[in-house]
Amino acid sequence: MRRYAAVLRVAVVGLLVLGLALPPLAAALRPLRERVASAGAAASSGSWADEHAFYKRDDNDMSPYSWNITGTYKGSWSFAGATNGSSRFLEFMTSKGDSVLELLSTPTKISGVHYVQGTITFHDVIDKSHDRGAAQIRLEGVYIWPFRQLRMVANSGADGEPLQEEDYFLSNPYHLLRIFSSQVFQDSSEEKNRRKNSLTHDMEKHCNIEIAAKVVRVSTNQNEGEHEKYRLEGLMESPSVDDDGECFSSILLNSTSLNVEAYYNKAVNYTLMVTFISFLQVLLLIRQMEHSNTQSGAAKVSIIMIGQQAIMDAYLCLLHLTAGILVESLFNAFATAAFFKFVVFSIFEMRYLLAIWKASRPLNSGEGWEIMRRELSVLYSRFYGILLGGILLMYELHNFLRPLLFLMYSFWIPQIVTNVIRDTRKPLHPQYILGMTATRVAIPLYIFGCPSNFMRIEPDKKWCIAVTAFMGIQAAVLLLQHYLGSRCFIPRQILPEKYCYHRKVEDSTNQPIDCVICMTTIDLSQRTSEYMVAPCEHIFHSGCLQRWMDIKMECPTCRRSLPPA
């Protein structure tokens, strides 16, 4: 409150002399850079010195609530001079970069004066410990709206009192989703806040950071609706407290306010995309379950492949639900996406996982309920244990998140290996292979490839190309196995010996042999491709036994196990 009262006293003194000393006050309100550069020079047309004329042009817009500069301003920073000079606390990697300014403007009892708090974040800047690429400074000051002038100084919050702008940040989707993405994809927010606050506190003790800026309203198009858009132009200076030169060279700021509604709509569109993708995955899962609805067909599918996809959908469900809880205004949108992901993994994928598990143990299906329940408990314990263990692993290895995502997106590899080992025939439907590949890769491509993604993550084209090629190669191998055989790409020299069903049979009795599947006679005088001989010496038509083996890998006559065809 002491700081707030001091700022108000400064504003009161300025307004008391407004009517008597308008030209001197107008000169004092000019940015520091212009006061130095234009000393003794005549003001040019359209310069910032013409505050009185600007004031007269807006006589019909005198309400202190008509100019609310609260919001997020995104733009660029650059050095006013040719070089970046020296810095005690920051090292500038380039001569210009991106900046984000968060402002909260509160009207005061003094007409025309707003109390402003906020933060400014400089990208492409690192501190002396070289541990991050952004620096954040807390600010506070006043905005005198008749002259459109903003004056702010650094504030480290050393007294331990929470700043008022934190309440605004906790309700701003733009800021909250940035926190969420930094926690999930970059650094932990607690560690970032600790570093940023200590940096601001150290700079404030040795530097007088000042920002002088002008905030003007710019025209908006019809697509932006009633949103008021503002442009901020100003100068940031840092004279040293101990008269030992500047802490860093003067920095020019040029930012434009963001349309939070447009940003909100972007996040909603993302959740609609996730919902649509989840709906497509449900249809693809139903198609695959119909393709392998028999015991033999389900046994061909890798349980690790389905379990890995179920874990991925569970993670996506938790992430979207967390984002909805964090950003209250977007809860309905993110909760809908989380619900559909929950349906995908908990109903369809877990049901398919159970069907594959039952098909892989046909000899134990007739055992008692106690044994069945015990084995089911082991299956579910392993699944949810891997799920929770993966969360802990990603938390500990969050700096290696992209390699971990690469590992998660190798879910087709277990099926490829299973096909080679068992020499299975067509375990997956081609539509399921292509559809799942496309829908699985859509979300990471949006997050890491879209330049204007709502989480503001820098695009990584190389990683996107790599993960797309990786998924494409896996899908291509599965399609080759589907059409050319499970071992089509393996040299014959290293393949194990395979049982041959099409071997010549000598009929010494000259008695007709019937196929027990179709109950018709088998002509052994035809080509060997017309009939198949099982290891137990029972003979069947080729088409009949192949259709039988799609249902059961047992001999129709003696129930002995049959090797892959």
Keywords:
about 575 residues, alpha+beta, Lipocalin, Herpes Virus-1, 8-stranded antiparallel barrel, two-stranded antiparallel sheet, about 45% helix
Could you describe the 3D structure shown?
The chain has 565 residues and is an alpha+beta fold. It has three domains: 69-155 and 198-257, Lipocalin (Beta Barrel); 260-482, no CATH class; 496-564, Herpes Virus-1 (2-Layer Sandwich). Helices cover 46% and strands 16% of the residues. It is built from 17 helices and 14 strands. It has an eight-stranded antiparallel β-barrel with strand order 1-3-4-6-7-8-9-10. A two-stranded antiparallel ribbon has the order 2-5. Strands 11-12 form a two-stranded antiparallel sheet. A hairpin with a 5-residue loop joins β3 and β4 (113-123). α8 runs parallel beside α11 and α10 packs across α12. It is elongated and about 115 Å long. 28% of the residues are buried. Residues 7-65, 158-165 and 187-198 have low confidence and may be disordered.
Quick structural gist:
Keywords: Membrane, Metal-binding, Signal, Transferase, Transmembrane, Transmembrane helix, Ubl conjugation pathway, Zinc, Zinc-finger. This protein has 17 helices and 14 strands.
